[in-house]
Specification:
The structure holds two protein chains of two kinds. Chain A is of the alpha/beta class. Chain A has two domains: about 170 residues, Periplasmic binding protein-like II (D-Maltodextrin-Binding Protein, domain 2), CATH 3.40.190.10; about 200 residues, D-Maltodextrin-Binding Protein, domain 2, CATH 3.40.190.10. In chain A, about 45% of the residues lie in helices and about 15% in strands. In chain A, strands 1, 2, 3, 4, 5, 6, 7, 8 and 9 form a nine-stranded mixed β-sheet that branches. In chain A, helix 3 links the parallel strand 1 and strand 2. In chain A, helix 10 packs antiparallel against helix 18. Chain A is globular and about 70 Å long. By secondary structure, chain B is mainly alpha-helical. Chain B folds into two domains: about 45 residues; about 240 residues, MetI-like (MetI-like fold, Orthogonal Bundle), CATH 1.10.3720.10. Chain B has a two-stranded antiparallel ribbon with strand order 1-2. In chain B, a hairpin with a 2-residue loop joins strand 1 and strand 2. The radius of gyration of chain B is 29 Å and the shape is flat. Classes of the chains: A alpha/beta, B mainly alpha. Chains A and B meet through helix 1, helix 4, helix 12, helix 18 and helix 19 of A and strand 2, helix 5 and helix 12 of B.
C-alpha cells in the first residue's frame, strides 16, 4: 500500500509538472483561433461553424470604432471578426515584418502605413495575396495614385487603400483676429494660395503684430512635412534611387521650414509629444498643417477651451500626409474570406462611413460624391465644409514617388535635422548635415 | 524517502523462503531505482530552468552572435550574407556608437552613484526604531513597483520646458527655464532622475536587510568606546555592508549598461533617436534603432555583442576588486 501511495504521489507530481509544462507551451503558441474550437453553431447560416477573421492594426485605426466590423458580421452571420491593435506604428511594423518572415502569428488582414507601403510592396509582396481580383474590388473606385502605391512591380496589388491624408491648415480665429488677419476660411486660404513662401510671409506679419505669447506655427517639422508632401518627387526618384540630397523640392522645403525656425515663427514644439498637446490646450500657436485625420486629435487636445476658435482653410498647395492600406498575408488560413472582408472594408460606402465617424479621408474617389463625404461639415471647426476642402486637396495632390526608406528619411530630417535648427539654435546647414549623417548611417546595411 | 525502504522488511510468514531470491531481486531493483532517483532527480527538477534558458537565453545569444557576422535585414531575416567581422570593425569608426557608449557611461554614473548613496542613507534611517516602520518600508518600495512607462510619462511632464513643474519651481526661486530635453547634460540628468527615483527604494531595502544582520554587540562595544552615531555608521555599518554594497553596485551597473525604457520614453514619439542630437541615446537605444527602426539585424546584433563584452569586462573588474577586498578583510 505504501509503495502504491508513493507511486501515485509521484504520478501526481509528474502530471502536475506535465500540466504546467503544456500550460507554458500553450502560452507561447500563437493564438490563431481554430474555427472548430471557436465555432458556435447557433448563428451559422448553413448550421456550420463560424469562421473567425482577425484584423491586425496600429493605433486607433477606426474600422472597429466606426462599427464596420459589426455591420459586416450582421451581413455575414457565419463570420466573426476580431481585432488586435498595437498603439504605435513603429512597434507594429517591425513585428509585422518578423511575422511575415516566419509565416506565423499573422492576422488574416494586416494594416500597413503609407510610409512603409513601398518597402512592403518591394520586399514582402511574395508573402501577400493579390487583391486586385478579389470579389468586390474595383480599381476605378480608388484614387489612381493610391492604387499605384499598393501595387508591387509585378503588378500585383497587395494593399488596398483605406484612408489618405489630404492636408489643410488649421488655424485659430481669435489669434488671427488679434494679428489683424482675416478670419474667414476662404479669405485665409487666399492669403497663401499657391505658394508656401506666402505662408511664411503671413507668419512674419503675424509675428510683427503678436510679438509674444503665441507663435505662428507649432513646429518647423510640421511645415517641412507638408511642403515635401506636396511635391511629386521627394526622397526617391522614379528609378528607385535616393535623391533627397540633390532634390530641389526637398531643398526648397528645407529652406522654407528653416526660415520658420530661425525667424522665431514656431512654438518650438515636437509633434505628438505631451508638450505639443499642452500647446493646443494653451493656444500657444495659431496654425498647424492638419491632415484630415488630425482634426479629431486637435478637437481632443484643444478641448472645450478651444471651442469656436479653430477653423480649417486650404493649404498653399495640395499635399498628402499619411494614410493606410489593408493587406492579406498568404500564410493565413482564410485568405479568400479575408480578401472579401478587405474589399468590403475599403469599398467607397464603407470609407464614407469611416470619414463620417472618424474623419479618416477616403482614398476611394468614388466616395467623394456620396453625401456623407460631399456634405460633411465639422462642428468643432466652425462647421467647415471639410468634405469639400479635403476632396479638393486629395484630387490636387500629385502622384508621389515613394521609396522603401521614406519613413527613416522623413523621421531623421524632422526629428534630427529640423529639430536641431529649431530647438538647439544650430544653423540650417548644420542641421542638414546632422540629418544627412544620420540618414547615411541608417541606410547603410 | 529513507523511511520508505522499511516497507521492504521481510515478514516472518512461513513458506516464504522459496521466494527469497525473488525478493532479493526485488529489493535490488528497488534500491537501484532509489539510487537512480537520488542521482538523476535533481537534474530532472532543474531541467526546466535550463531548457528555458537554452530556448530564451542561450539560443538568442548564439544566434545573435551568428547574425552579427552577416548582413541581415529584418525585411527578410533568412537572407544572410557573410561579412565576417565588418559589423564589429565599423563600430570602431561609428560616431553614433561611441556617442551612445559615452551617454550610457555618464547616465550610468549620474544614476548609480546618487542612487546607492541615497539608498544607504534611507536604509540607515529606516534601521532606527520608528513608529510605523512597515509603512515606510513599503512606501520606499512603491516606485520600484511602478511601471517604467508610467513613471517616465510623469517625469516627461515634470521636466517639460514650458509647463513643467521643475521649471516652475526653478522659476519661483528666480532661475531661468531649462530646456531639459534638448540640453546635453540636462537631458541626461533628467533621465538619471527617473532611474534614481525608481531604484533607490529597492537598494535601500537590500541595505536595510544587511544592516539588520549586523550584530548589536558591535554597536554596543563601539558605543562603550565612545563612538558617536556617525562614527558607528562609518566604522561599523559600512564595513559590515561591504559585500552588499558591492553586490548592489554590480547589479546597478548592469542595469545602467542596459538602460533602455527610460531614455526611449523620455523622447516621447520621436522613438529611439535619443533626442535631436542623440544626446541621451544609450547603447540599448542605439541597438533598438539599428534593429527595429533601420531594420539592420546584423548591425544590431554586433552592438548587442559589444554590450555583452562590455558587461563581461565590468564583471572581470568587479571580480578583481572583490577579490582584493576579501584579501584586505582577512589580512
Amino acid at each position: 500500500m505504501r509503495t502504491r501511495t508513493r507511486m501515485s504521489r509521484r504520478l501526481a507530481a509528474l502530471a502536475a509538472v506535465a500540466a504546467l509544462g503544456t500550460g507554458l507551451l500553450a502560452g507561447c503558441a500563437d493564438d490563431g483561433a481554430s474555427p472548430a474550437a471557436e465555432g458556435s453553431t447557433a448563428g451559422g447560416g448553413g448550421g456550420g461553424a463560424k469562421t473567425t477573421l482577425t484584423v491586425g492594426v496600429f493605433g486607433a485605426f477606426g474600422l472597429k470604432e466606426a462599427g464596420l466590423y459589426d455591420a459586416y458580421m450582421k451581413l455575414h452571420p457565419d463570420i466573426e471578426i476580431k481585432q488586435t491593435s498595437i498603439e504605435r506604428n513603429e512597434n507594429y511594423y517591425p513585428q509585422l515584418l518578423t511575422h511575415l518572415g516566419s509565416g506565423s502569428g499573422l492576422a488574416d488582414i494586416q494594416a500597413v502605413e503609407v510610409s512603409n507601403i513601398a518597402e512592403v510592396t518591394a520586399t514582402q509582396s511574395g508573402k501577400l495575396e493579390d487583391l486586385s481580383k478579389a470579389p468586390g474590388v474595383n480599381k476605378d473606385d480608388f484614387l489612381p495614385w493610391k492604387w499605384a502605391e499598393g501595387t508591387a512591380k509585378d503588378s500585383k496589388t497587395v494593399g488596398l487603400g483605406t484612408d489618405t491624408g489630404p492636408t489643410g491648415i488649421c488655424y485659430r480665429k481669435d489669434l488671427f483676429a488679434k494679428a489683424g488677419l482675416p478670419t474667414d476660411r476662404d479669405a485665409v486660404g487666399k492669403l497663401w494660395a499657391g505658394d508656401w513662401n506666402k505662408y511664411l510671409e503671413v507668419g512674419r506679419q503675424y509675428k510683427a503684430k503678436v510679438p509674444s505669447g503665441s507663435a505662428f506655427v507649432d513646429s518647423a517639422s510640421g511645415v517641412l512635412n507638408s511642403i515635401t508632401g506636396s511635391s511629386a518627387t521627394r526622397y526617391y526618384d522614379a528609378a528607385g534611387k535616393v535623391v533627397y540630397k540633390d532634390n530641389p523640392a526637398v531643398k526648397q522645403a528645407w529652406d522654407t521650414a528653416s526660415a520658420f525656425a530661425t525667424g522665431g515663427l514656431t512654438a518650438k514644439l515636437q509633434q505628438f509629444q505631451p508638450t505639443w498637446d499642452q500647446g493646443f490646450a494653451n493656444a500657444s500657436f495659431a496654425t498647424v498643417s492638419c491632415p484630415a485625420w488630425m482634426l479629431g486629435y486637435i478637437q481632443d487636445k484643444a478641448g472645450a477651451a478651444g471651442k469656436d476658435q479653430w477653423d480649417v482653410a486650404a493649404a498653399p498647395k495640395p499635399s498628402n500626409w499619411g494614410g493606410s492600406f489593408l493587406t492579406v498575408p498568404s500564410a493565413g488560413k482564410h485568405t479568400a474570406e479575408a480578401a472579401k472582408l478587405a474589399a468590403w472594408l475599403t469599398a467607397p460606402a464603407q470609407q464614407a462611413v469611416l470619414f463620417a465617424k472618424r474623419g479618416s479621408f477616403p482614398s476611394a474617389k468614388a466616395a467623394y460624391g456620396l453625401p456623407a463625404v460631399a456634405d460633411a461639415k465639422h462642428a468643432y471647426f466652425g462647421n467647415a465644409p471639410i468634405g469639400q476642402i479635403f476632396a479638393r486637396a486629395a484630387e490636387g495632390t500629385p502622384v508621389q514617388t515613394l521609396g522603401p526608406k521614406d519613413q527613416i528619411i522623413q523621421q531623421n530630417l524632422s526629428d534630427i535635422g529640423m529639430l536641431q535648427v529649431e530647438q538647439k539654435g544650430k544653423s540650417p546647414q548644420q542641421g542638414w548635415d546632422a540629418a544627412v549623417k544620420a540618414i547615411d548611417n541608417a541606410l547603410d546595411q | 524517502m529513507a523511511s520508505d525502504t522499511t516497507a521492504a522488511v521481510p515478514s516472518p510468514t512461513p513458506g516464504q523462503e522459496s521466494t527469497a531470491p525473488a525478493r532479493a531481486r526485488a529489493d535490488e531493483r528497488r534500491s537501484r531505482r532509489y539510487r537512480r532517483d537520488v542521482r538523476w532527480s535533481p537534474y530532472a527538477f532543474t531541467a526546466p530552468f535550463f531548457l528555458f534558458f537554452a530556448a530564451f537565453g542561450l539560443f538568442p545569444l548564439l544566434y545573435t552572435g551568428w547574425a552579427s557576422l552577416h548582413q541581415v535585414e529584418l525585411t527578410s531575416p533568412n537572407d544572410m550574407t557573410w561579412v565576417g567581422l565588418r559589423n564589429f570593425s565599423r563600430l570602431l569608426s561609428d560616431d553614433f556608437f561611441w556617442n551612445a557608449l559615452r551617454n550610457t557611461f555618464t547616465i550610468g554614473v549620474l544614476s548609480t552613484v546618487p542612487q546607492l548613496l541615497i539608498a544607504l542613507g534611507i536604509a540607515h534611517l529606516l534601521n532606527y526604531k520608528l513608529r510605523g516602520s512597515m509603512f515606510f518600508r513599503v512606501a520606499v518600495l512603491t516606485p520600484y513597483a511602478t511601471s517604467v512607462a508610467a513613471a517616465t510619462l510623469v517625469f516627461v511632464l515634470l521636466f517639460g520646458r514650458d509647463y513643467g513643474m521643475v521649471n516652475w519651481a526653478l522659476g519661483l526661486v528666480g532661475f531661468d527655464h531649462i530646456d531639459w530635453q534638448n540640453g546635453g547634460l540636462s537631458s541626461q540628468l533628467a533621465v538619471s532622475t527617473i532611474v534614481v527615483w525608481r531604484w533607490t527604494g529597492y537598494n535601500a531595502l537590500i541595505y536595510l536587510a544587511a544592516m539588520q544582520a549586523v550584530s548589536a554587540d558591535l554597536y554596543e562595544s563601539a558605543a562603550l568606546d565612545g563612538a558617536s552615531r556617525w562614527q558607528q555608521f562609518r566604522h561599523v555599518t559600512i564595513p559590515s555592508l561591504r559585500p552588499t554594497i558591492l553586490f548592489t553596485a554590480v547589479v546597478s551597473t548592469i542595469g545602467a549598461t542596459q538602460l533602455f525604457g527610460e531614455p526611449l520614453l523620455f523622447n516621447g514619439s520621436a522613438g529611439a533617436t535619443g533626442g535631436s542630437d542623440h544626446q541621451f541615446q544609450t547603447l540599448g537605444l542605439y541597438l533598438y534603432e539599428q534593429g527595429w527602426v533601420n531594420l539592420h539585424l546584423g548591425r544590431a546584433s554586433a552592438i548587442a555583442w559589444a554590450m555583452f563584452l562590455i558587461l563581461l569586462l565590468i564583471g572581470a573588474v568587479n571580480w578583481i576588486v572583490s577579490h582584493k577586498l576579501r584579501k584586505g578583510m582577512t589580512s
